[in-house]
Specification:
The chain is α+β, with helices and mostly antiparallel strands. 18% of the residues lie in helices and 31% in strands. It is built from 2 helices and 7 strands; from the N terminus they run βαββββαββ. The chain has helices at residues 15-25, 75-84; strands spanning 2-4, 32-37, 46-48, 55-59, 65-69, 88-94, 97-103. The protein has a 4-stranded mixed β-sheet, covered by helices on one side. The protein has a 3-stranded antiparallel β-sheet with strand order 3-4-5, with no helix packed on it. A hairpin with a 5-residue loop joins strand 4 (55-59) and strand 5. The longest helix is centred in the first third of the chain and has 11 residues, at 15-25. The protein starts with a strand and ends in a 15-residue tail after the last strand.
Amino acid sequence: MFFAFWLSHVPPTRLPDFWNTVAAALTPGGKVIFIDDGPAAAAYEEVLTNQPTPAALRRLDDGRRYRIVKVFHDARTLTDDLTARGWSVRIRSMAGNFIGIAEPPARAGDETTTVATS
């Protein structure tokens, strides 16, 4: 599974359910690859303060404005959070973004058996 610049739009309180949904969508042994904005990207956003959920203001070319959920994840914190949930994860920073590869913990019944043939 792959997603780009999407994780930063998931409210922090919904991350556990989000990762559970991702895990359920993967086949046994499946992995997720993701990329998103790191903390440095906040300098290019109109970050809203004093919000119940991290947010930014986005302006469209036609002048409309929208308040969006925008979480600038730190690679180390995200790695620690996923590891605490039992995921095997590697996340690295690159050019102000982060790139991650993660595999959820094995679910009961997901074990595969290798059958030898002759």
